[in-house]
Amino acid sequence: MINIKIPKLCGCAKKKKSWNKKYTFETLKEAEKKAKKMCKKANEEYCEKHTFEYEVKKDNVIIHIKSNK
């Protein structure tokens, strides 16, 4: 099983129900697809203070939130 993990959420992401769910997938491809979609939506639609990126680490896809300072 592959999990999407988000170690730290910004205020904008905390308000979104989709960011507060636990995501588990059968394949890495599925998990990466979902993480990519989540990051793209956050970057383009609702958070101007942060940039959202993901990386693959073993059996997890980790979404990182970086400040746009």
Outline the structure in words:
The protein has about 70 residues and is of the alpha+beta class. It has one domain (about 1-65). It is built from two helices and four strands, in the order βαβαββ. The chain has helices at about 10-15, 30-45; strands at about 1-5, 25, 50-55, 60-65. The longest helix is centred in the middle third of the chain and has 19 residues, at about 30-45.
Number of helices: 2
Mean pLDDT: 90
Distance between the termini: 36 Å
Strands side by side in the biggest sheet: 2-1-4-3
* Number of beta-strand segments: 4
Please tell me how large the radius of gyration is: 11 Å
Shape: globular
Number of domains: 1
Fraction in helix: 25-40%
**Largest sheet, strands/sense/barrel:** 4 strands, mixed
Beta-sheet strand percentage?
25-35%
Structural class: alpha+beta
State the low-pLDDT regions, or none: none
H/E element string?
A: EHEHEE
Assembly annotation: single chain
Short description:
The chain is α+β, with helices and mostly antiparallel strands.
What labels describe this entry?
4-stranded mixed β-sheet; globular; alpha+beta; 69 residues; 35% helix
Secondary structure blueprint with pairings:
Layout: E1 2-5, H1 11-15, E2 23-25, H2 28-46, E3 50-57, E4 60-67
Parallel strand pairs: 1-4
Antiparallel strand pairs: 1-2, 3-4
